[in-house]
Design goal:
Helices cover 39% and strands 17% of the residues. With 322 residues, it is α/β, with parallel strands linked by helices. The strands form two sheets. Strands 2-1-3-4-5-6 form a six-stranded parallel β-sheet, sandwiched between helices. A five-stranded parallel β-sheet has the order 8-7-9-10-11, with helices on both faces.
Length: 322
């Protein structure tokens, strides 16, 4: 099957992880990667239009399916589908944002997303579509929606763990400051990876190095009433677990229930003392929590999820492969 993936050049971005996985499969893979917000001056509206044109220019040949994580990309895919360049257009909805930009840009963005939902042949929702607010936001499109969460392959390497923590950005809610204050109370190394800030931007290899040696992953989300994190799948938590790193987080992202059900982390409050308690708990119980983290991560690998749910099965997609 020939597959087109539209993406951004952002480390750890879900479509980029999908691309890595599919390269080892029996498919023809083409990825179109647009500059991310942190690599250019991003202007809502204008930059979306630039992305639409870029995809139109770079799509060459025929693709059985095309996958887009951004509603602006979907404008291109619908046009390409109508021109016979792609067979099916899939919108991978990575997050639901009731308010992503200031007005009037947000109203335009919401209209663009409604277009993507209405015109996609299939929708992959990274958030569980059974969450009531997600189901309501999908409206009539829910019948063509399947759940494709943030997935990885188990990535643990045989390296010696050291007494260290890792915090991953971007920092949208002063989470890094909270964690820095907590780490000062504990005798432990504190590492930072944040692609949105030059000072903390690191390579994929360096990130893997930190993950393979870390004993605690820090990912608390501020409990704000209108935060979209209450119904998003946390890529940070999924990534920590795939490396066998116990996680300290708040009860905001739905992914926190994995830590409770699989006993592979600590649910903290939004204060320094509670984060400190979580760090100490993970250090004291690291061996057990790390084993459980890897077991939990096995349920969210591309290999298992795509096989169990037949995500790319041509018969499920109703595609005739020539």
């Amino acid at each position: 099957m020939n597959i087109l993936i539209c993406s951004f050049d952002t480390p750890g971005y879900a479509p980029n992880e999908l691309h890595k996985y599919l390269l080892g499969q029996d498919h023809g893979i083409h990825i179109i990667s647009c500059p991310a917000k942190h690599n250019r001056a991003f202007i809502p509206g204008y930059s979306h239009w630039q992305n639409i044109k870029y995809v139109q220019e770079k799509a060459v040949g025929y693709y059985d399916i095309a996958i887009a994580p951004d509603p602006a990309f979907m404008v291109s895919l619908v046009n390409l589908r109508d021109r016979g360049i792609i067979g099916k257009a899939i919108y991978w909805r990575l997050d639901y944002y009731p308010r992503k930009y200031p007005e009037p840009f947000n109203q335009a963005y919401q209209a663009l997303e409604r277009y993507a939902l209405n015109h996609a042949d299939e929708i992959w929702s990274i958030s569980d579509p059974e969450i009531p607010i997600i189901a309501r936001s999908l409206q009539d499109s829910i019948s063509k929606t399947i759940h494709v969460p943030y997935l990885m392959s188990n990535s643990l390497q045989k390296t010696d763990r050291v007494r260290s923590t890792l915090w991953m950005g971007p920092d949208l809610d002063t989470s890094r400051v909270l964690c820095e204050e907590a780490v000062k109370r504990v005798d432990i190394e504190f590492n930072i990876a944040d692609y949105s800030i030059d000072e903390f931007r690191i390579s994929d290899d360096k990130l893997a190095f930190f993950l393979n040696r870390a004993m605690v992953g820090l990912s608390p989300y501020r409990p704000e009433k209108k935060s979209p994190k209450y119904f998003c799948d946390s890529s940070r938590i999924r990534r920590f677990l795939s490396y066998g790193v116990p996680v300290v987080t708040t009860d905001v992202a739905p992914t926190h229930t994995t830590l409770i059900n699989e006993h592979c982390g600590f649910i903290c409050e939004w204060n320094t003392e509670s984060v400190e308690e979580g760090i100490n708990y993970c250090l004291e119980n690291f061996d057990e929590l790390s084993r459980n983290a890897l077991l939990a991560a096995e349920k969210y690998t591309y290999e298992r999820w795509f096989s169990d749910h037949k995500i790319l099965d041509p018969s499920r997609l109703n595609i005739n492969i020539l």
